[in-house]
Amino acid sequence: MEPYPLLFEPILKPKVWGGRSLAALGKKLPPKIPIGESWEIADLPRSVADGQSVIANGEWEGQTLRQAMASHHEEIMGDADTSAEGGFPLLIKYLDAGENLSVQVHPDAEYAARHPEAHVKSEAWVVISAEPGSVIYKGVKPDVTAEEFAEHIRTDQVVDDLIAVPVKAGDWHYLPSGTCHALGAGIVVAEIQTPSDTTFRVYDWGRKEAPGTVASRELHIEQALECIDFGRQTQEKPSKPARSIEASGVRTTELVTTEFFHIERVDALSMARFRVVTSGRPEVWMMISGAGRIQAQNGPAIDLHPGTTALIPAGLGDEWMAMLARSAWMLRVKLSSPLKGMIA
Length: 344
Known about the structure:
This protein is mostly beta strands and 344 residues long.
């Protein structure tokens, strides 16, 4: 059969630091439970609980993304690489920080090579909303040594060692592996990352595992200290766009370019209509604000509303068109190549 844009059932993740803001992105939240993450597209190993997205539309409805890729690999992936264990090479999420996330770090390739159970994770945040005064923590101050940082973990002074960066809606930040970081309270972000959930916590704000419990959440101080890049010069502001192009009623702005993925922001300057072109690799579209539609000529239509995430298969026919209402905007995520060696 001909490929078509794929929608997925969101995988909602309760978190002690979560909130209720993902309802504004169309997520049906269970009552009285803080939801920290909505996994929009996930294809992790079966050993990861609730780590595989299920298709929610069309003829492949009910299949996991992994199952659809097994039977329709070329149509979905084109010439793009999968992860080393055969999965989709990105993990796409929304995060709602009702409280500060733990101060954490993800392993880089050097650490992962020495520890097969750990996996590389580089990520980018695009800020959807932020309460006044909100900050993210991005990197360790350049004058802080590893020995000082370790001592400050023990004396509960580690936050003073971090670079606090004020954020507002529309900002974006890349957090390569080895960057010590935390998402601050009052912020909702779209997160695009390599498909790994390996996280080492160094500080958790004195938080407990769950309300009413006495056990603190597990820290991984020894592993984190081995992973943190203390020499990295971290930018205190989002990177400036490399370029911005206007065509077919939309402005496309390049936000993040990495060896793993590219992120663009697409803004509708008027009622916009343009052909969907994938260039032989799948894309991920995340509708952030406003309304849109993807439609085949004389065929089915897929409505786009805030919170809709669509996987555009590499083999999508050229009869598909996209329409965006004036002032709507979305994120367009493209795969870099190659993506070999990425595992979850």
